[in-house]
Amino acid sequence: MRAHESFTCLVTGDRAPRANFHTLLSCVLPRPIAFVSTLSADGVHNLAPFSFFNAVGSNPPAVIFSPSTRADGTQKDTINNLRQVPEMVVQVVPHAIAEAMNQASAQYAPEVSEFQAAGFTPIPSRYIRPMRVAESPVQMECRLLRIVPVGDGPLSGNVCIGEVLCFHVADGFLTGDETVDIEKIDLIGRMGGDWYSTIRDRFELSKPAAGSTGNVRPRPAR
Questions:
Q1: CA 127, CA 89: separation in Å to the nearest integer?
Q2: Is the residue at 203 inside a domain?
Q3: Full-model pTM
Q4: Is the pLDDT of residue 220 over 80?
């Protein structure tokens, strides 16, 4: 390992929100993508990708994702729908559907369904009203637990916490121990700007025993 000698400090309070946004996205990566389907009060099925996404806990199993407030201060259809119908399906995004997923990210009018606009196949869920995406190999039906605002105004966050009610895994993707085959699933991740990554290059590290240092050599604090 090599210790870096000097650093540039970017004070967030002295910078424009958009500048902080771009810096944050360029250093927190790769970010997994939640492809989220929701339902409006008028019955329109919405579909949108979010890269502020992760899993939190397993009792109950839960996921979080955060639709950012738009630069003009308005909210995205997903967050508006969840406040009306507190249910969603969180799908994963394999490389095979990357371009169609990107198309679904366009800012369509609320009355337009991204399922149709981007060419995805809607299939019924088992426990909730929003539709699932047949082209995604893993779909998680979720009940909204809470929306946690983070800040207010343009580019603020809206952390949505969902309890996973059930997993749908496409045939051929589930292993014998009921985990998903990471090679077959071929997911993509979000990078900075227009860049994406795959999970095709991987390496393995076994969890160390307590007190073990392996090949790590501690350095004195500066």
A1: 10
A2: no
A3: 0.90
A4: no
